[in-house]
Structure formats: structure tokens, C-alpha cells
Amino acid sequence: MSVRELLPFFKWGFSLRRSNFLVPILSNNVIVTGEEAVSYQDPRKTVPVVPFSEFQASSPTLASLSTLSVSDVKRSPLSPLDNAISMLTNDELVVRVEQGSLPQYKLETELNDCTRAVEIRRQVLERSLEREVEMKGLPYADFDFNKVLGACCENVIGYIPLPVGVAGPLLLNGASVQIPMATTEGCLVASTHRGCKAITQSGGARSCIISRGMTRAPVVRFGDVMRAVELSQWVEDPANYQLVKTTFDSTSRFAKLINVKTTIAGRSVYLRFKSDTGDAMGMNMISKGVEKVLDVIQTYFADMEIMSLSGNMCTDKKPSAINWLEGRGRSVVADAVISGEIVEKLLKTSVLAMVELNQSKNLVGSAMAGSVGGFNAHASNVVTAVFLATGQDPAQNVESSNCITLMEATNEGRDLYISVTMPSIEVGTVGGGTFLPAQSTCLDLINVKGASYDKPGSNADQLARIVAGGVLAGELSLMAALAAGHLMKSHLKYNRAKS
Hints:
The protein has 499 residues and is α+β, with helices and mostly antiparallel strands. It contains 19 helices and 13 strands.
């Protein structure tokens, strides 16, 4: 039996000094010998050190091993004995990718080394460009791409470092919170920070969850309108709805169906499912439940044609009146009373000027523009910055930024009352990008990291409240800058590119 045939049975993790003799090591089915074996480290995990005396006592003898065939041992599908791709040089791998014999999307699994896969992909990209591009500006080192694989991104070539600032503290519901914000827009964090200061010095803000529930609306089609109406009536029947709910709820420990609303357009039916999804944003969770319900419905309506799991009445990542009117994710409201003294000394304007500007800009101006959910100054700015910092889906800022900002004079005109109503904030503290190290740290900063097992959904609720509180602060500060004529001055000072 050859040495090469014998090697797969040795899974040694010795910690040895450098020497020139042969030291065979098999770690995750990658064979390393000589001095390389002494310094070799598994790219995915650390192999525990096993003293040689313990290995002798617990391992089969070489004589017994020699009677076995290599085919008797179950190997990993990534074993280089079966597939020698991982043994090739980077240059050889680049050629294979360019020839099409090694698909780019398979690099991570074939090489069993995510960082090396990124390096190969970068080389292929550089060689394919018609002009020279300095790739050093796009970093890839010192990042755990194993966390990204199969979860966050494909065909990875690096990562984008984003500045992260913090606004606050904001006194929200009696507790002090800091608001992490990832952005490249100068003045945004500073302005939101000023708003937090004004709110906190005036006694704090209040923020409440009105309702919660993620939605998914598949579209199905029949041969005629009569059958479409029959399905709508069938779903509305209490006994049938209970069947639908039982089926849906069986797909997850946390998914709880709240309601199903049907809309008919000709022979097509849109079924808008609304479900509680705990601390997850919940799109995958609700889609899984809806898929199983559609299978059950088809046993009663064999002629039902499922056109799409999403029929755009959900509505996900697109402007829509239905999210504005009926809500999606978390529906949140936040308010505060800002003392007139703070308005004048910190915000450099007056209560009357703020109220009049809000009416002219956020209400009348947005109405004249035909806006849906855009009755605010810049809610999307704060929403997106918090989303990027905490691992949310940034594309969902479209509906999550639905907001109406209201202002009025109170306490006989001396103070300013301000509120924001946001019917469709879509956030989660588990899933998506929330588990990546930087984003997870930002969630931990506001004490909502991971799931709440005592009260499922409470962490995501708190995150939504903080988003609304941040928007409240951002609206207050920007509107004050506009009323005082300071907006352009501040942007010229803080938002100019520096070479």
C-alpha cells in the first residue's frame, strides 16, 4: 500500500517545530507535507492538537490499516483525491475559469477556501477588463467570507467599507439609546445627532408599535371570473380560513397567520397573506407558509393556475398605496414636544416657522407632487443609514421610508409638537445580514442582537421603534435647518469631497 493511499486515514493535528523530515497531515481532506505541514492552518477551523501518545493508544495499528482499501473510507465530496482542483496554482485556476471548465460560482465549494476563491475571481475580473483598474481600493483581506457563502452574496470579489457614525443619546420611552448609522452623506449623522439632543433635552420621545405583520400576495388564475369569485368566497369562509391558518402555521415555530385578504382582477385572484414572523423580517418565512397553503387550496380548486408566489400586491421594494394604507412589517408612530427655548437656542429657529414650513413643504408640497407615503423631509436618509448599519435589506427602504411628519404649536404656542407615522418599517434582528460581525455589533449596541426567546418579536419591535425615533430626530433637525436657512451652509462645510 502506497503512502498516498495511507494518508487519508491520518487526521493528525500535531503542533511541531520546524524540521526537514516528512510530516503527513490530512486536515479537511487537504494533504500537506514537510515544513508546510508544521505551519498549516485549516482556513475554516482550528484542528485540535492531539498528543502522539494518545494517538498511539487510540488509533488502529499500521498493520490493520494496510488491509484496507482507500475505497473503503467515506471521503468528503471536496476531497482532492477525488478532485484535484484545490491542488492547482492560482494561475492554473484562472485559466480553467476563463476556459469555462470551472464555473466562477463553484470556486468556494471546489476549493473549500472562500478567501482563495475571492482572490481567483479578482484575478479573472482584472484580466477580463479592457482597461487597467486598481483593485487594491476594493479590500478583501481580513473578512470571514464563510459567513457570506450561501447567505448574503454570490461571486464575491471583496467588501465595501462604509463609515459608521452614531447619533445620540436619544431618550426614547424613558431609556437612553444610541443610533448607529452607516452613510457616505456628510451632515446626516451630525444633523440627526442634533435632533436627538433637542428631543432629549426637551424630555424625550415616545414610540409605539401600532401593528405588525409581514405580507406576501401570490396571484392565481382561473378559466373565468365565476371561479375566481368562488375562491375568494371560499377563503373568507371561517372553516376554510381555519384550515388555511393551520396549514400556514405548521411551517414555522414563529410564523402566525393574521389574515388573508383577496382582490379580484378579471379571472385573477390576489391573496394577500399577513403573518407575524417574530424577530425575523420574515419574507422567507411567510413565502414558505404561502407555498404550502397554495398546495392545499389546489386540492379544492384543481383548475387553479398559480401564476407567481408574488403578485406585487405584497408589496415588496416598490412604492405602493397598499403598504401606506394597510401597513407592512411594523407600523410605528413616534412623537415629542420640543420646548420653545430649545427650538430657538439649539435649532436656531422658531416654533411658528417650523409649523408653517412643515405645512408648505411636507404636506402641501408632497400632495402637489402626487406623493404616496412621502409626506416628510428625508425619512429615507435615516432609515437607509440604520438599515445598512444593522444588516437590514437596504432595498426595503422604499416602503420602510413611508412617513408623514406632522408639526403643530402646543402649550399656547410656546412649544413645538412633532410626530412621525411610519406604517411599513420592515426590520429583523435575525436572518439576512444581521449575523455579519459589524452589523451584529451595531445591533448589540442598541441591545437588540438576535432573537428574543422570552418574547418573540420584541427585539425587532424595539429596532423599529428606534428607527422611528431616529427619523423623528432627523426630521426635526433638517426642518429647523431649512427654516433657518442653514442647510446649504452646513452642506458646504461638512459634505465637500476632500482630496
